[in-house]
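are you around this afternoon, could really use another pair of eyes. what follows is a protein written twice so to speak, once as letters and once as C-alpha coordinates for the fold. i want to understand how the C-alpha coordinates follow from the sequence so walk me through it. anything you notice is useful, everything is just below.
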Amino acid sequence: MNLNLLDFVQDVGAATTADDVGQRFVRFAQECNASVVHMFMETQLSGFRAGNVPYEILEEEVHDSQFGTSQIVELVTSGAPKVFWGVDIDQGNPMLPELDVRISEDRFRLLKQRNSVTFPMPDADGQYRGAGVGIGFEDRGETFLTHMAEACGSLALASFSAHSRIQLLLTHERAPSPLSKRQGEILELLAAGFQLGGIADRLGIADSTVNLHLAQLKKKLNVKTKEQALAMAISSGWISL
Protein backbone atom coordinates (compact mmCIF):
# COMPACT_ATOMS: atom_id res chain seq x y z
CA MET A 1 0.00 0.00 0.00
CA ASN A 2 1.20 3.51 -0.83
CA LEU A 3 2.73 5.08 2.29
CA ASN A 4 0.87 8.37 1.86
CA LEU A 5 -2.37 6.43 1.53
CA LEU A 6 -1.59 4.35 4.60
CA ASP A 7 -0.81 7.52 6.57
CA PHE A 8 -4.11 9.00 5.46
CA VAL A 9 -6.11 5.91 6.46
CA GLN A 10 -4.42 5.83 9.86
CA ASP A 11 -5.02 9.56 10.41
CA VAL A 12 -8.69 9.21 9.47
CA GLY A 13 -9.03 6.32 11.91
CA ALA A 14 -7.79 8.61 14.69
CA ALA A 15 -9.98 11.61 13.73
CA THR A 16 -12.64 12.50 16.29
CA THR A 17 -15.09 14.59 14.24
CA ALA A 18 -16.82 14.09 10.90
CA ASP A 19 -15.73 17.57 9.78
CA ASP A 20 -12.08 16.71 10.43
CA VAL A 21 -12.37 13.52 8.38
CA GLY A 22 -14.04 15.44 5.54
CA GLN A 23 -11.35 18.12 5.49
CA ARG A 24 -8.58 15.51 5.54
CA PHE A 25 -10.17 13.68 2.64
CA VAL A 26 -10.53 16.84 0.55
CA ARG A 27 -6.82 17.58 1.05
CA PHE A 28 -5.85 14.01 0.14
CA ALA A 29 -7.92 14.10 -3.06
CA GLN A 30 -6.44 17.47 -4.03
CA GLU A 31 -2.95 16.04 -3.53
CA CYS A 32 -4.00 13.45 -6.13
CA ASN A 33 -4.67 16.39 -8.52
CA ALA A 34 -8.43 16.46 -8.03
CA SER A 35 -10.02 19.86 -8.58
CA VAL A 36 -13.52 18.99 -7.36
CA VAL A 37 -14.31 16.86 -4.31
CA HIS A 38 -17.74 15.96 -3.02
CA MET A 39 -18.56 13.44 -0.28
CA PHE A 40 -22.21 12.84 0.57
CA MET A 41 -23.70 10.52 3.19
CA GLU A 42 -27.14 10.47 1.53
CA THR A 43 -28.86 12.04 -1.46
CA GLN A 44 -30.79 14.55 0.65
CA LEU A 45 -29.21 17.97 1.12
CA SER A 46 -29.70 17.62 4.88
CA GLY A 47 -27.15 14.79 4.95
CA PHE A 48 -23.52 15.37 5.96
CA ARG A 49 -21.37 16.60 3.10
CA ALA A 50 -17.73 17.48 2.69
CA GLY A 51 -16.07 19.00 -0.34
CA ASN A 52 -15.58 22.14 -2.39
CA VAL A 53 -18.69 22.11 -4.57
CA PRO A 54 -20.79 25.22 -3.81
CA TYR A 55 -24.06 24.45 -2.03
CA GLU A 56 -26.22 26.11 -4.69
CA ILE A 57 -24.81 23.77 -7.37
CA LEU A 58 -25.51 20.72 -5.23
CA GLU A 59 -28.99 22.00 -4.46
CA GLU A 60 -29.81 22.35 -8.15
CA GLU A 61 -28.40 18.90 -9.00
CA VAL A 62 -30.37 17.19 -6.24
CA HIS A 63 -33.53 19.05 -7.23
CA ASP A 64 -33.14 18.08 -10.89
CA SER A 65 -32.40 14.45 -10.02
CA GLN A 66 -35.72 14.20 -8.20
CA PHE A 67 -37.62 15.06 -11.38
CA GLY A 68 -35.55 13.40 -14.09
CA THR A 69 -33.95 10.13 -15.10
CA SER A 70 -30.27 9.85 -14.23
CA GLN A 71 -28.04 6.93 -15.19
CA ILE A 72 -25.41 8.18 -12.75
CA VAL A 73 -27.88 8.07 -9.84
CA GLU A 74 -29.06 4.60 -10.89
CA LEU A 75 -25.47 3.31 -10.94
CA VAL A 76 -24.70 4.88 -7.55
CA THR A 77 -27.76 3.31 -5.95
CA SER A 78 -26.88 -0.04 -7.53
CA GLY A 79 -23.56 -0.08 -5.63
CA ALA A 80 -21.33 -0.20 -8.72
CA PRO A 81 -17.65 -0.15 -7.67
CA LYS A 82 -17.02 3.10 -9.56
CA VAL A 83 -18.81 5.37 -12.02
CA PHE A 84 -16.95 7.48 -14.61
CA TRP A 85 -18.75 10.52 -16.01
CA GLY A 86 -18.09 13.99 -17.41
CA VAL A 87 -18.15 15.98 -20.65
CA ASP A 88 -15.50 13.79 -22.30
CA ILE A 89 -16.69 10.44 -20.95
CA ASP A 90 -20.29 11.30 -21.92
CA GLN A 91 -19.32 11.47 -25.60
CA GLY A 92 -18.93 7.70 -25.62
CA ASN A 93 -22.51 7.16 -24.46
CA PRO A 94 -25.04 8.62 -26.94
CA MET A 95 -27.94 7.10 -24.93
CA LEU A 96 -27.08 9.04 -21.76
CA PRO A 97 -30.13 10.80 -20.25
CA GLU A 98 -30.42 14.54 -20.85
CA LEU A 99 -30.17 15.22 -17.12
CA ASP A 100 -26.73 13.60 -16.86
CA VAL A 101 -25.45 15.49 -19.90
CA ARG A 102 -26.65 18.76 -18.40
CA ILE A 103 -25.04 18.08 -15.02
CA SER A 104 -21.72 17.22 -16.69
CA GLU A 105 -21.85 20.36 -18.82
CA ASP A 106 -22.71 22.53 -15.81
CA ARG A 107 -19.83 21.05 -13.79
CA PHE A 108 -17.45 21.85 -16.65
CA ARG A 109 -18.82 25.36 -17.18
CA LEU A 110 -18.93 26.30 -13.50
CA LEU A 111 -16.08 24.27 -11.97
CA LYS A 112 -13.85 23.28 -14.92
CA GLN A 113 -14.53 19.62 -14.11
CA ARG A 114 -14.09 17.72 -17.38
CA ASN A 115 -14.31 14.19 -16.01
CA SER A 116 -15.07 12.56 -12.69
CA VAL A 117 -15.15 9.27 -10.80
CA THR A 118 -17.86 8.57 -8.24
CA PHE A 119 -17.50 5.77 -5.70
CA PRO A 120 -20.91 4.60 -4.40
CA MET A 121 -20.95 4.02 -0.64
CA PRO A 122 -23.19 1.80 1.51
CA ASP A 123 -25.31 3.02 4.40
CA ALA A 124 -24.66 1.65 7.88
CA ASP A 125 -26.84 -1.39 7.13
CA GLY A 126 -24.84 -2.22 4.01
CA GLN A 127 -27.52 -1.09 1.54
CA TYR A 128 -26.78 1.35 -1.28
CA ARG A 129 -29.26 4.22 -1.35
CA GLY A 130 -27.30 7.06 -2.97
CA ALA A 131 -24.37 7.88 -0.69
CA GLY A 132 -21.01 8.25 -2.36
CA VAL A 133 -17.83 10.16 -3.05
CA GLY A 134 -17.33 12.16 -6.25
CA ILE A 135 -13.88 13.30 -7.36
CA GLY A 136 -13.53 15.55 -10.41
CA PHE A 137 -10.54 16.42 -12.58
CA GLU A 138 -9.68 18.95 -15.25
CA ASP A 139 -7.91 16.16 -17.17
CA ARG A 140 -9.10 15.52 -20.72
CA GLY A 141 -10.50 12.12 -21.70
CA GLU A 142 -7.45 9.94 -22.38
CA THR A 143 -5.37 11.69 -19.72
CA PHE A 144 -8.17 11.15 -17.22
CA LEU A 145 -8.43 7.42 -18.01
CA THR A 146 -4.65 7.02 -17.74
CA HIS A 147 -4.72 8.85 -14.41
CA MET A 148 -7.52 6.58 -13.18
CA ALA A 149 -5.60 3.47 -14.20
CA GLU A 150 -2.84 4.62 -11.83
CA ALA A 151 -4.74 6.29 -8.99
CA CYS A 152 -8.28 4.90 -8.92
CA GLY A 153 -7.45 2.14 -6.41
CA SER A 154 -5.90 4.57 -3.94
CA LEU A 155 -8.77 7.03 -4.32
CA ALA A 156 -11.32 4.25 -3.81
CA LEU A 157 -9.64 3.06 -0.62
CA ALA A 158 -9.27 6.59 0.74
CA SER A 159 -12.92 7.32 -0.09
CA PHE A 160 -14.16 4.19 1.65
CA SER A 161 -11.96 4.85 4.68
CA ALA A 162 -13.23 8.41 5.08
CA HIS A 163 -16.85 7.47 4.48
CA SER A 164 -16.72 4.60 6.98
CA ARG A 165 -15.13 6.80 9.64
CA ILE A 166 -17.67 9.59 9.13
CA GLN A 167 -20.49 7.08 9.33
CA LEU A 168 -19.11 5.80 12.61
CA LEU A 169 -18.67 9.29 14.06
CA LEU A 170 -22.12 10.45 12.99
CA THR A 171 -23.79 7.49 14.68
CA HIS A 172 -21.59 7.88 17.80
CA GLU A 173 -21.06 4.15 17.94
CA ARG A 174 -17.97 1.99 17.86
CA ALA A 175 -18.86 -1.44 16.59
CA PRO A 176 -16.98 -4.40 18.11
CA SER A 177 -14.69 -6.19 15.69
CA PRO A 178 -16.53 -8.93 13.79
CA LEU A 179 -13.22 -10.34 12.48
CA SER A 180 -11.77 -13.66 13.47
CA LYS A 181 -8.15 -13.70 14.63
CA ARG A 182 -7.00 -15.10 11.26
CA GLN A 183 -9.01 -12.55 9.28
CA GLY A 184 -7.43 -9.76 11.32
CA GLU A 185 -3.95 -11.16 10.68
CA ILE A 186 -4.58 -11.29 6.94
CA LEU A 187 -5.79 -7.69 6.84
CA GLU A 188 -2.81 -6.50 8.90
CA LEU A 189 -0.43 -8.18 6.44
CA LEU A 190 -2.37 -6.73 3.53
CA ALA A 191 -1.97 -3.26 5.06
CA ALA A 192 1.75 -3.91 5.43
CA GLY A 193 2.01 -4.42 1.68
CA PHE A 194 2.09 -8.22 1.43
CA GLN A 195 0.55 -9.82 -1.66
CA LEU A 196 -1.48 -13.04 -1.60
CA GLY A 197 1.52 -15.36 -1.83
CA GLY A 198 3.46 -13.44 0.80
CA ILE A 199 0.52 -13.55 3.22
CA ALA A 200 0.19 -17.30 2.72
CA ASP A 201 3.92 -17.84 3.33
CA ARG A 202 3.94 -15.61 6.40
CA LEU A 203 1.00 -17.44 7.98
CA GLY A 204 2.04 -20.92 6.81
CA ILE A 205 -1.19 -21.55 4.90
CA ALA A 206 -2.14 -22.13 1.27
CA ASP A 207 -2.97 -19.32 -1.15
CA SER A 208 -6.44 -20.81 -1.53
CA THR A 209 -6.96 -20.58 2.24
CA VAL A 210 -6.08 -16.88 2.20
CA ASN A 211 -8.59 -16.40 -0.62
CA LEU A 212 -11.23 -18.26 1.38
CA HIS A 213 -10.67 -16.06 4.43
CA LEU A 214 -10.87 -12.92 2.26
CA ALA A 215 -14.10 -14.10 0.66
CA GLN A 216 -15.62 -14.84 4.06
CA LEU A 217 -14.65 -11.50 5.60
CA LYS A 218 -15.90 -9.53 2.57
CA LYS A 219 -19.25 -11.28 2.97
CA LYS A 220 -19.21 -10.67 6.72
CA LEU A 221 -18.52 -6.94 6.29
CA ASN A 222 -20.83 -6.67 3.26
CA VAL A 223 -18.15 -5.10 1.04
CA LYS A 224 -17.13 -5.84 -2.53
CA THR A 225 -13.32 -5.72 -2.41
CA LYS A 226 -10.51 -6.59 -0.02
CA GLU A 227 -9.46 -2.93 -0.13
CA GLN A 228 -12.87 -1.88 1.20
CA ALA A 229 -12.60 -4.51 3.94
CA LEU A 230 -9.17 -3.17 4.88
CA ALA A 231 -10.39 0.42 4.94
CA MET A 232 -13.31 -0.49 7.20
CA ALA A 233 -11.07 -2.45 9.56
CA ILE A 234 -8.53 0.38 9.91
CA SER A 235 -11.04 3.22 10.26
CA SER A 236 -13.04 1.22 12.81
CA GLY A 237 -9.94 0.34 14.85
CA TRP A 238 -10.35 -3.41 14.38
CA ILE A 239 -6.72 -4.05 13.41
CA SER A 240 -3.43 -2.58 14.61
CA LEU A 241 -0.71 -1.31 12.27
